[in-house]
Amino acid sequence: MSKRVAIVGGGLAGFVAYATLRHGGLASSEIAVFGTDADPAAQWRTRAAAIRQRRMRSESDGHCGATSFPGLALRTALKQRDLWPLVLSVCDRYHPTVEEFLEHVGELREASGWEESFRRARIRRVRVVGGGFELDEEGPFQHVLLAPGHPGLAFPAELERDPRAVHAYEPHDFADTVEVVGAGMAAATEWLNALEAGASVISVRRREPERRPLNLPRHLFTRRGLAAFHATGHEERAGFLRRWSVPSYPQGRDWDEPVERAIEAGRFRVAAEVNGAEQIVCATGFRRGFQHDELLKRLVEEQGLETVDGWIVLAPDATIPQLTDETRTLSIAGVPGQWAFPAADTLMGAKYAARRFLRRVRACPTP
Amino acid sequence: MSYTLRGRLETRLAASLAPLVGACIVALALKEWWPVELAGGMIAVGLALDLTLYDRLFPYQPGWVALPLAGLELGLVMAVVRIVGIGAPLTAALVFFAASWLLGQVLVHAVFPLTRLSYGDDGGELGVAGPSAVVAVVALAAAAGSVAWATQPPTVRLGAGIHQGPLVIDHSQKLIGERGTVVRGGIVVTASDVTISNIAVTGADIGIKVDGAENVKIEHVRIAGTSLDGIQARRASVEIHDCLVHSPAGEYSAGIDISFAFDLAPSLVEGCTILGGREGIVTHFSNVHVHDNYVSGTTLRGLGLTEMSMVMAEDNEIENALGVGIYCGDYSECMLEDNVVGGTRPDVSSGDLTRLGFPIVAHSGAKVELRDNTLSRNSGGVRAFLGARISSE
């Protein structure tokens, strides 16, 4: 059978889309996945290991399965024959370990037939052709979901060539004195890592970090908050996305107590600028904007897509309106899909795009 | 979950469908309406809270909040049951509520997310299944309501003035009088599901006689001038509320007599005033709740609870009885609580040593349990005779 659906990007967002399509009844022979690594968690695993992440920020339903039930809490409860994960889950206090999450990804990868659909290739161009889209020389595909992932690590301009600087998501050890630039989840994790390694930490930040359990307020993960978000005009929506893009990390003793102890011991302080430490860890996340991604940049330029301040304008269902009609679909999942779902760079965001993509695939007749 | 208002309502109604169907089946099996009424009450309370409170209060609702909200809803549903007068047994109502809630939790956390992938992202909205669920619940409720309406007993209104009896009610109906409606010659009820309300009865051997009928309600009636009983129920299950029985005159007269109905649903006598006569309220071989009545001036006993009856008598006032205030006899079991018995006079002329002005008498193997009764100005005290036992807390 010819493949009519393609996923560009073999990371977690592409994997979530694949699992969703398979759950929705598509055979693996109907789907092509283009990526650079057969392990959908490869990049994520490297970054999580770099910041020594132990637990997920997401909760029980932060997994790659198509349905939110069963969640990871139930999975762990059954495995360990212990109800405690479920109790924590109903109180929104269950955060799976990184090992649990990766184990689940491995199982799902095996069960979903991912290997049968995966092709090792970096797609550089999407062309609109009769019957859908051509991906480099592959295709045409009637429905395409682009999940290119983050377009590279972000460094402060002044530190880009500084030999002392290392990005938090790159493997590193700690010097005796470490300046950690940033105020988000990665920065907070690095404070604890460096303190645990015996280093003194200087948190370099220009604003106090926001504290919230998830990347965004919870109502913005559902139609309750999204309806108002989708009703905004372009400028307002861009402002909204900028406002909610500020760094944040969760509340809780696990985060605060080690820092408080270190402050008392004179091993932790806050500064506005870097100032001569042995090592600078840039916990400054990723580059932002489609223009940093070769594939998206070319697509925007060639197709004249509407953009606002680095975001590609998408329909609420995460499709590109100019290139989607009753016969074909071009969707974006993952971080470049924020115009449709502000928390697009989370697993919930990947599912949001994937579910709507599946809906379109089902609704469009096969030519 | 961050529900939208529509999501809340659709989820509520979809989750209510199975309990409503279950209630209809139970109602058919029991030939009772309370399961459907209870399910309707639950749905109504839930929808009202969704619309007025939950949507505003919970932009996001963590899983654990379902538990206190269930407590709130249970309290409100039970209040509705009480206020509206839904005849649901307490245990059955609690089990039904708990089972419905548990089913709802399973649906919300497992079944709906499995069957509709975007259930969570859509704020609990169910897509095309949502309106279908709404239509199904409304259709089912409308069907149940139509059946209830169609099977309601007809209402017969008696105008003001004197109506010559005896009136014989041999099919289900509501007989409702206007102010000043009097039936002379008594009323005889031989059909179940009858309500008699707001009527005065005079000039009969028995004011209102209920024979072999169930679910008979007698409320706001005034009975005077009878030669036997004011109200007599034989092999019948009755609810009597707010009656006045005045001076039954005969040698064997009783204000209210409920007899030979132990195998039927319990009867209730509540809020009645009985003045004079030989006995106030009498039970023989029956299961009766006697609550909040006033009995005065009887010549044999205020309450006569006998012949293996099981009676809960509470909050009654027995005043100025001759011989005995409350009598529990012949292997009956009587729970007497918060009653006031006063001014019981000795019946010396009878020569009966068990009638010397005792406020409470247990007789012939009866068991009486006393709790918080007030006994004053009586000639004698509490007494047990012939193997009867009295215990108190």
Task: Tell me the layout of helices and strands.
The complex is a heterodimer of chains A (367) and B (393).
Chain A: E1 5-8, H1 12-23, E2 31-35, H2 42-50, H3 72-80, H4 84-90, H5 98-112, H6 114-117, E3 118-120, E4 126-129, E5 132-135, E6 138-141, E7 143-146, E8 165-167, E9 177-181, H7 185-196, E10 200-204, E11 210-211, H8 223-230, H9 234-244, E12 248-249, H10 253-264, E13 268-271, E14 279-282, H11 294-303, E15 307-308, E16 311-312, E17 329-332, H12 347-363
Helix pairs in contact in A: 1-12, 3-4, 7-10
Chain B: H1 5-30, H2 34-57, H3 66-84, H4 90-115, H5 129-151, E1 155-158, E2 161-164, E3 167-169, E4 173-177, E5 181-184, E6 187-189, E7 194-202, E8 208-211, E9 216-224, E10 229-234, E11 238-241, E12 244-246, E13 254-259, E14 267-270, E15 273-275, E16 279-284, E17 287-291, E18 294-296, E19 301-306, E20 310-314, E21 317-319, E22 324-329, E23 333-337, E24 340-342, E25 358-363, E26 367-371, E27 374-376, E28 383-385, E29 389-392
Parallel strand pairs in B: 1-4, 2-5, 3-6, 4-7, 5-7, 6-8, 7-9, 8-10, 9-11, 9-12, 10-13, 11-14, 12-15, 13-16, 14-17, 15-18, 16-19, 17-20, 18-21, 19-22, 20-23, 21-24, 22-25, 23-26, 24-27, 25-28, 26-29
Measured as a percent range, the helix fraction of chain A is 25-40%
Number of helical segments with 4 or more residues of chain A? 12
Oligomer: heterodimer
Encode the helix/strand succession of chain A as letters: EHEHHHHHEEEEEEEHEEHHEHEEHEEEH
Query: What is the largest interface, and how many residues per chain?
Result: A-B, 30 and 23 residues
Number of helices of chain B: 5
Rg over CA atoms of chain B: 26 Å
Low-confidence stretches of chain A: none
Radius of gyration of chain A: 21 Å
Number of strands of chain A: 17
Average pLDDT of chain B, rounded to a whole number, is: 94
Q: Which strand order spans the largest sheet of chain A, edge to edge or round the barrel?
A: 3-2-1-7-17
Q: Beta-sheet strand percentage of chain B?
A: 25-35%
> Main β-sheet of chain A: number of strands, strand sense, barrel status?
5 strands, parallel
